[in-house]
Amino acid sequence: MIIVITIISYFLILFCVSKLTSKRSDNATFFKANQKSPWYLVAFGMIGASISGVTFVSVPGMVLSNNMTYLQTCLGFVIGYIVVAFVLLPIYFRLKVTSIYTYIEKRLGKYTYKTSSSFFILSKMSSAAVRFYVVCIILQRYVLDNYHIPFVFTVAFLVLLIWLYTKRSGIHTLVYTDTFQTLCMFIALFLIIYKVLGVLDLSLFEAINKIINDPHSRVFVFNDSLSGQNFWKQFLSGIFIVIVMTGLDQDMMQKNLTCKDLHDAKKDMCSYGLAFIPANLLFLALGILLMFFYNYMHLAIPSSTTDELMLKATAGGLLGNWVMVFFTIGIVAACFSSADSALTSLTTIYCVDIKNRDNDESLRKRVHLVMALCFIGFILLFRWFNSTNLLDAIYTLVSYTYGPLLGFFAFGLFTKRTVKDKLSPFIAIISPLLCYILSTFIESFTSYKFGYELLMINGTFTFLGLWLFSKKTTIVK
After folding, report:
1. Is the pLDDT confidence value at 474 over 60?
2. DSSP notation for 356-395
3. 476 pLDDT exceeds 50?
4. What parts of the sequence cross the membrane (predicted)?
5. Are the CB atoms for 238 and 77 separated by under 8 Å?
């Protein structure tokens, strides 16, 4: 019951924020917040939106199988954010776009543009569903199953709550709710760490020393080129994950485009990009502390999935009711800051890119509701197919669905050739299929297992496909 009360209280605050920010709302407010958002609020809120509830659950448990090697990927993230800030943001601001895929239309043509937007809708709908699935399954498992409430109702209720507080002002509301949600997430994280240190009777400096000396604190892997944790594979993948999941993602870029000018947007991008390393270091450190906690309490460390390391200690009540409250606040804040912005960006892309009716307020309201209903469907679909670590599930989806976006943008930025526009949809479909075939073949006959580098390979296949059916031109980018 304590979790239900916590979530209701949390939503009441969100609705109050929504009410205050929704006065005189129109499509310009919904899509771009009239480009009046303070860059520091956008930057702080983006940390929570980027981290998501998946980080809360999955990253601490990653130390069980991968030690702290995820930080190698985070180092790549920083370089990726710099690339986005100084390469992609100037293009978007110069073109004064609402949808970032407008660049594709101007550079490569209408069919490539529609294909990019369609792939974004598929990619964002599926990856956001994975993220939101976290909070739904936790509520179901630890609270609502006790009241015999079906999972379908849980999902529908939570998504429709998000729809209610975003349906009027969209991105304008999210700039402020994301700031609040990120603050809640970090307060929850610090309080959980504080509680674990209290149980273990460790000072902060003693805890740091124990973590450093623990074998699971290993960060860098240089000596095994076949390992999925090899530094260069993780580092380069981190760069391209950010370029694709932020720079080529309408959801993430839409908030940055609400800043008043390019200078503010660059400050916003670089600020929250640098914050990723300390933020994820805290989550990984918590993972090692939780291992100490299980040993201290003479409990078996969960072995079913790495996600269970965090879930059993917090939502499972091993650390007490107050930690359960902290965890609920943190994961709800992280999950909802991702889901609400995803819903808003999906509405934007459909109205602006697919229907070309960005001034039709009636259409925007209908589409926003339909996207919420589709979101519910995707979450329920994922429940039946999920069998892996949630963070890995997201990056696997990204590798297959965002790869064509990477190829389209790379071709537009780094060549001056004209594509056969009508062939772009076929190239975008064939490239992920080739990636799947290649991955399956190599894993069947060698010991090499593809990781997040599939994203780069997918983008390369798309790029080469466009090149094969292109011709020289003198287009000025």
Report:
1. no
2. --TT-HHHHHHHHHHHHHHHHHHHHHHHHH--S-HHHHHH
3. no
4. 39-64, 70-95, 116-141, 147-166, 231-248, 269-294, 314-336, 367-385, 397-414, 426-444, 450-469
5. yes
| Domains along the sequence of the chain with CATH | 11-386 (1.20.1730.10), 389-476 (no CATH)
Where helices occur in 243-275 by DSSP H, the ranges are 250-256, 262-274
Tokens of 53: 């509830």
Distance, in Å, from the CA atom of 421 to the CA atom of 110, rounded to the nearest integer, reads 7
In 3D space, the residue among 301, 280, 245 whose CA is nearest the CA of residue 84 turns out to be 245
Q: Is the pLDDT of residue 465 over 90?
A: yes
Select the more confidently predicted residue: 147 or 63. 63
Output the pLDDT for position 412. Answer: 94
For 262-294, how does the pLDDT look when each residue is reduced to its tens digit (9 = 90+)? Answer: 999 999 999 988 988 999 999 999 999 999 999
Tokens of 97: 């776009």
Nearest to 309 by CA among 6, 56, 4: 56
Q: What string of H, E and C letters represents the secondary structure of 108-160?
A: HCHHHHHHHHHHHHHHHHHHHHHHHHHHHHHHHHHCHHHHCCCHHHHHHHHHH
* φ/ψ (deg, to 5) at 419: -90, 160
DSSP state letter for 317: S
For residue 5, the number of C-alpha atoms closer than 13 Å in the C-beta half-sphere is 7
CA 49 to CA 41: how far, in whole Å? 12
Yes or no: say if 31 and 171 are a contact pair by the CB < 8 Å rule: yes
pTM of the model: 0.82
- pLDDT for 1 equals 65
Does the pLDDT at position 329 exceed 90?
no
Q: With contact defined as beta carbons under 8 Å apart, do 245 and 21 qualify?
A: no
Question: Residue 108 has what pLDDT?
Answer: 94
Helices 39-66 and 70-83 sit at what angle, rounded to 10 degrees?
Answer: 150
Cα–Cα distance, 70 to 61 (Å, whole number): 11
The mean pLDDT of 247-254, rounded to a whole number, is 89
